[in-house]
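Q: Diphthamide biosynthesis protein 3, please. Structure only.
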Amino acid sequence: MSVYHDEVEIEDFEYDEDEEIYYYPCPCGDQFQISKAELAAGVEEATCPSCSLVIKVIYDKEAFAAKQEELIREEEKQLVIQKFHIMDFEKEER
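A: Structure for Diphthamide biosynthesis protein 3:
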């Protein structure tokens, strides 16, 4: 069992869309971090790369997983729409 410096709600983290990582300030001056993939896998500990502190991330695992699945479906839908637009454009070019 880990000893947590604190317990923090996921909503209090800052999310970097490019890196797909959630960040939260650490007392040492760096930031705790946890990736979207780790959260999807059920990990609930965010670590600081500069010190030994660990915090527990409070989030609804089922709701998080459902949201990720919804985002994936929406991305796939957009790819299909783009593909059909390209096919229509190519037909018009002929």
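A: Brief note, in case it's useful. DSSP finds two helices and six strands in the chain.
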